[in-house]
């Protein structure tokens, strides 16, 4: 049981409050803010901060429903500072079994003070005490009778996202999908083959199980306390972190040694590394991205894995500089566009996305995706392949983007290609007609969409 001093806000809650306040005011990269803040905490404190922030984001809707009977106005109509104090306090009461109720209430009051809501400490104290006693039990939707309402309220997914999910898989599966989204996601590695010297038995050194769909995947069954950098083989480039669905997308490239490959929007680089591994040492992958910081991370990964002679890195905004506009722009047998998207398919990893996105955002992302496809299309040689992928399941960013591109001037020489015959084969359970799709509740992997587009000879 955690021992906490009354009347003093713990450092982990302070960081959690700072990050949530920042996110609620102006959504950004929660994981980056937590890493920055964790530098001033010890290991256990940092892990508790992560747990609280991600826990509140995963259960925000349910916590709001539990708090509603004790508030004059709904939680979302309260000041942001008060919301953060009540959400963190109620999360401790309902989900942190190691925290005594008295400590959770006391720390909720201290949070209100820290966040500048000193005049509302009495309200926070009273509300959290009543939550701890369950004075007014909330009648929540029944999962079997009302799966969509359950997914929105109990599983805390905005109704518009639930509707998007239901359009794909129906009500019962949507509830299952949302439930999985609130669980800790697996940490999956892609193993370098052949393994670097001294790491032939890497699977035996790491605590994990082989991937179900991709032979180079290893799903860790225990998260490393020191992070992925502390794992054996990391410094020697024996693996990189990559979800199994993302590894499966690389199979659509159907690579052969000697091919020239363009990875547009390449950072942070998992698919670049996978392509370089498949092609071998005498081939070239050109990795392009607009973000200088992310490109530095990509270069670090390429150097660590030992693929510097296989990968050429280029900074470029493809919307401003379409391919063939620079001197020296050549053609490629394979082009991969893993396009920037809403990220709805990785809500399990980034629960902040569900509250940061709106339905209107989907159209804006789709316009950019079509623009990027039109920009890289000239890079594909006759008879070549353009693979379009996004970690989103919305029709606006999936089929509609493909349809819009094929109807455009840039896409008139392309058609949807078959997924049969790719080597290695696409996992059969991820094949959905002409496209590849993966789902967290079906595959234990992120929700990806991918299409293989072939250019006429």
Could you please describe the fold and organization of this structure?
By secondary structure, the protein is α/β, with parallel strands linked by helices. It has four domains: 11-133, Orthogonal Bundle (N-utilizing Substance Protein B Homolog, Chain A); 147-181, no CATH class; 187-241, Alpha-Beta Plaits; 246-455, Vaccinia Virus protein VP39 (Rossmann fold), CATH 3.40.50. The chain contains 17 helices and 13 strands. The protein has helices at 11-25, 30-38, 43-67, 80-95, 101-114, 121-133, 147-153, 159-169, 171-181, 202-205, 244-249, 270-279, 292-305, 353-356, 359-376, 399-406, 440-443, and strands at 187-191, 208-210, 217-220, 239-241, 260-264, 284-289, 311-315, 332-338, 380-390, 414-416, 431-432, 435-437, 449-455. The strands form two sheets. Strands 5, 6, 7, 8, 9, 10, 11, 12 and 13 form a nine-stranded mixed sheet that branches. The chain has a four-stranded antiparallel sheet with strand order 2-3-1-4, with helices on one face. A hairpin with a 6-residue loop joins strand 2 and strand 3 (217-220). The relative contact order is 0.09.
Number of helices: 17
Number of domains: 4
Low-pLDDT stretches are none
The major sheet is characterized as: 9 strands, mixed
User: What is the total tally of β strands?
Assistant: 13
What would you report as the Rg, rounded to the nearest angstrom?
A: 24 Å
CATH homolog superfamily of the largest domain = Vaccinia Virus protein VP39
SSE series: HHHHHHHHHEHEEEHEHEHEEHHEHEEEHE
**CATH architectural category of the largest domain:** 3-Layer(aba) Sandwich
Report the β-strand fraction as a percent range: 5-15%
**What class would the helix/strand composition place it in?**
alpha/beta
- Anisotropy-based shape: globular
How far apart the termini lie comes to 68 Å
